[in-house]
Fold:
Amino acid sequence: MAVLQCPKCLKEMSYSEDIVGQSTACPHCQNVTVVPAPLPVLEYESHLPAAKTTAMGETSLILGLFSLPSLCWCPAVGIPITITGLVLGFVALHTAGRQAAIAGIVLNTIGLAGSSFATVEMASRFN
Structure:
C-alpha cells in the first residue's frame, strides 16, 4: 500500500499500487485524482573512502598535541608543526574526521600563538 495526498483537501489516502495511472476518488472529499507512479528512492553514496577522510583530521589533532610541549623544548620547531597542523585541520573540516579536525585547529592555534610568542621572547633576550 502506498500513500497519496489529495490535492483538494490535502488529506492522505492509501491506495494499492495496482491502480497507478488510473483515477480514484478521495474518501474524504470525493475529488477524483489520477494516481501517480511512486517516486524512486534515491540513496546517497559517499565517494570518499573513510580511511583517508579521517586521517587528515587525526593528523591535525596529533600535531596540535605535539605542538604544545614543543613550546618548552624548541619554540622555533613548533611554528612549522602548527602551520602544517592548521592546514590539515582546515582541509579535513569537510570530511568524516571533522571532530578531530576542529580539536586539531584549536590546539594548533594555541600552539602557533605560544610558539610565536616564545620565539620572539627568546630573540629579544639575545639582543
Observations:
- The longest helix spans residues 98-126.
